[in-house]
Structure formats: C-alpha cells, structure tokens
C-alpha cells in the first residue's frame, strides 16, 4: 500500500504536472461526470416534453431489452468481434516486434515502424471509405483474387465474412501502435544476456525463444489484462461506417444497437437502459483488469 506520506510527497514534488492536467480534468468533469444524472432516463418512460419529470417505470426498460432476441445477438456479436480483436492486437504486434528487433539496418527498421504506424492516425470515417473502395466487388482486393483464379468475395455484404473483415482491418489499422510498445519493451532487455547465450553457442532462434519471449511475457500479460475493460467495445466508429442491414445478424454490436434505438428510433429510455447495462459491465471489467494487472504483471496506478 502507498502511504499517505508518500502521496503528499509525490504531490508536492510534481504539483506543476498536476496543474497542467487540471484543464483536462475540468473538461472531463463537465462533459463526462455531470451528464451522469441523465442515467435516470433508463428508469423512466421518458418523454422529451416532460424531461426528467417523466413517469418512473423502474426496471421495465431493462426487462424489455433483455427479452429482445436482437439484444442477445448483439451481445454475442460484440463479444466475438472484441475477443478476436484483442487477441489479434496482441499476437500480430508481438510477432512484428520480434521480427523488427532482429533487423540490423536502422534505416529500414525506422522506415517500417513509420509505415505501419501511419494507419493508426487515420480516423475510421476515412478508413471506412478506403475499405469500401478496396473491398468492393470491383475493388483492388477482388481483382487480385480474380487474377489468382478465385471468385468475387463480398467482404462487407456477407454476414459470415463481415465480422472477420472488421477484425482483420482493425488489427491492420492498430498493430503499429502495439509494435512500438513491444519494441520499447525489447530495448529494456539486457544485451549481455544475448552475448552470454551466443558464447554458449545458442542460435538466433534459441536466443529469441529462451531470452526475448520470456522477458516479453510480463508486457504481453499487462497489455492483455488492460484490454479486458474493452470487451464490450467492439468499435462503434468502424462498424457504424461500414455496416448494412444485410449483415446485422453477425455485425450488429451493442453500440450500433443503442444508436438505432436511442437516436434513429427516438427510444431514449430503452437506449439509455442498454447503455447503462454496458457501462456497468465495462466498469466491473476495468476494475478486474487492474486487479489482474497488479497480480500478474505488477502494474499499479500509484
């Protein structure tokens, strides 16, 4: 446990940094905490004309939502897409970081880091347009498939393929960020360990297997457990900008379901109930992730 004396010393020594954080904290308080009062809508038969004075119905909205087959389907879709995104965003960056770590040409290494990191800065609004172009039936990807003798694939219109399209495109867009994190972890490994292994006759593969990977495991565990809080966040921006009714059966997630109920269909109370359910589960998962991060990787906020 961190003592109160240490906390006071920490605040005294770094008060300037906390002062610089103050504007951001104020904005978060105004736009994230004050609106929390609006969750009462989830327990009301909400009427915009009456506002928060709308009739109180208790858990009726939640019972209605949980009785809908579409809601159960969206939970499964969200869980399925998110789990594979998390696993992919761990495995691919680790593999790529290990490969780049073996590259001796500094210029090539830095160039590759830059190239794979660029997509991370592109918003999903723009990226969705790019995907629609290159994955169209007459797009670049289908043309390549045709040249190889394959048939046309409807990546964004086939319910079986759509979730995997979202998973793979999300990994492609974000793995550059993860690669940099793992490369930073690799630079912290003591070079003398590799030198000693080389003297003992270990091959490059043996050095990676017996030194690099085991020392990288704590970082992998940390990144994995910290991702648990996002299990119900399958990526609204990505899916909203690419989904169509034909793939709702496999691609509709909690966030897009809430958007349709609360905004498009003006069922504000039901939409608020779904959003509150998701927030409650996510809060539990965030707490669990930090507990696991402390137990498995020794990570603490303070």
Task: Walk me through the topology.
Layout: H1 4-13, H2 15-33, H3 60-66, H4 69-101, H5 106-117, H6 124-134, H7 140-147, H8 162-187, H9 191-199, H10 204-226, H11 236-240, H12 248-251, H13 254-264, H14 268-297
Helix pairs in contact: 3-14, 4-8, 4-10, 5-8, 10-14, 13-14
Describe this structure in words.
The protein is mainly α and 302 residues long. 69% of the residues lie in helices and 0% in strands. The protein has 14 helices and no strands. The chain has helices at residues 4-13, 15-33, 60-66, 69-101, 106-117, 124-134, 140-147, 162-187, 191-199, 204-226, 236-240, 248-251, 254-264, 268-297. Helix 10 (204-226) packs across helix 14. The longest helix is centred in the N-terminal third of the chain and has 33 residues, at 69-101. It is globular, with a radius of gyration of 24 Å. The N and C termini lie close together (9 Å). The mean pLDDT is 85.
């Amino acid at each position: 446990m961190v003592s109160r004396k240490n906390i006071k010393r920490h605040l005294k020594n770094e008060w300037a940094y906390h002062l610089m954080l103050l504007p951001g904290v104020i904005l978060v308080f105004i736009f994230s905490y004050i609106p929390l009062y609006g969750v009462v809508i989830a327990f009301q038969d909400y009427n915009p004309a009456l506002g928060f004075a709308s009739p109180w119905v208790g858990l009726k909205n939640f019972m209605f939502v949980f009785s809908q087959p579409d809601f159960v389907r969206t939970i499964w879709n969200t869980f399925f897409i998110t789990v594979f995104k998390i696993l992919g965003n761990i495995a691919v960056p680790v593999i790529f970081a290990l490969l780049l770590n073996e590259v001796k040409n500094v210029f090539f290494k830095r160039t590759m880091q830059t190239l794979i990191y660029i997509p991370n800065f592109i918003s999903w609004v723009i990226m969705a347009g790019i995907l629609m172009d290159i994955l169209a039936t007459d797009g670049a990807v289908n043309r390549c498939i045709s040249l190889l003798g394959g048939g046309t694939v409807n990546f964004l219109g086939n319910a079986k393929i759509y979730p995997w399209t979202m998973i793979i495109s999300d990994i492609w867009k974000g793995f550059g960020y993860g690669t940099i994190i793992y490369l930073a972890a690799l630079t912290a490994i003591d070079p003398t360990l590799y030198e000693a292994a080389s003297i003992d006759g270990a091959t490059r593969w043996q050095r990676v297997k017996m030194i690099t990977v085991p020392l990288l495991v704590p970082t992998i565990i940390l990144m994995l457990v910290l991702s648990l809080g996002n299990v119900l966040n399958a990526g609204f921006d990505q899916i909203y900008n690419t989904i169509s009714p034909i793939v709702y059966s496999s691609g509709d997630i909690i966030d897009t379901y809430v958007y349709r109920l609360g905004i498009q269909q003006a069922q504000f109370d039901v939409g608020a109930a779904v959003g509150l359910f998701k927030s409650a589960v996510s809060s539990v998962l965030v707490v669990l992730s930090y507990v696991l991060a402390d137990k498995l990787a020794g990570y603490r906020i303070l």
